[in-house]
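Recall that a protein's primary structure is simply its ordered list of amino acids. Everything else, from secondary elements to tertiary packing, is in principle encoded there. The following example makes that idea concrete.
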Amino acid sequence: MAEWIGIGRRGRRCYGFDEIALMPGRNTINPEEVDTSWEFARKKFSVPIMAAAMDGVVDVKFALGMSRLGGIAVLNLDGIQSRYEKPEEVLKEISKATPQEATNLIQKIYTTPIKEKLIAARIEEIKTNGGYAAVSCIPQNAEKFAPVAEEAKVDCFVVQSTVTTAKHLSTRYKPLDLFAFCKNRKVPVIIGNCVTYDVTLELLETGCSAILVGVGPGAACTTRGVLGIGVPQVTATIDCAAARDFYFQKTGKYIPIITDGGMRIGGEVCKAFVCGADSVMIGSSFARAKEAPGRGFHWGMATSHANLPRGTRIKVGISGSLEQILFGPALVDDGSQNLIGALATSMGALGARNLKEMHFVEIIIAPSIQTEGKLFQVVQKVGMGK
């Protein structure tokens, strides 16, 4: 229910991951006997966590590593990998920049034109080495890049912008017709990002294969500060999942939703699934992997905007290998490693045999969940106090 926030105006209370907790189930299950896999476009993936299409996270090597471990990593076609023959040199330059220099440097680096031959080359390199090739670009480039990607045998195409709606209005350029785009594609299309029931419902009608949920929750994103827009991920995921379920009841077509951003640790990943996610997309946690191209740095997808950056470069450090982050063994105490182990253990305690059963777990409002009994951790800045 909305509350009065002033004369004639009501505001709806929305919730983020820190404000809720999950209620243990009546039955518990051996974590080794739960199923953490998810299905996308009639293909089963053992890892329900996707790596975000960010230049500090995914390159060809990282995409191959994710594929080998059973997941999907999305390559950014608007980024460094498709602009430079030798992206390693550019990435090294970004990692060496001071905080004061970083944004201006990134803006300059992203003015180099995108080369379609590099789009094809990166995809072909992933496919040649047996990987799953998923790529992403903004709507303005989708019509041009999609045929190139399909010719190179891409597996999945993502159309992604800060806020996506089924109908975009403009008199300055021709907006992308998402309905026609999805219909004309030879591969599954993921569309994002959105945070509301109505928009999700309209996007599901386009013929897409999945929806990305989240506006501004990413660790390197500044959209909420610059533009003042966004919905906390718990409420956004629940609302968008409700639209998915209504669409399924109406059409018989089940189209997954992917909670994108705002998750740093295992507990937040688990909460996203209970809120209704079929998969989650993560950036900053993977940016900490030894295999990540950012060398311990991570920056938002809109950091390079020439006039109004809506992201920043942050130092995340390197905590371990990609395999450690996904499967352990965890060598840190903050829940940022062995994400799949955390998910399986949580599912066992909640009594959920698979991810769809996670959708029925009880959620409680519990803002004290982060601090209750954790004084020593907070003071010493260890565990949940970090």
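The domain at 18-385 is CATH 3.20.20.70 (TIM Barrel). The two ends are 34 Å apart (CA to CA).
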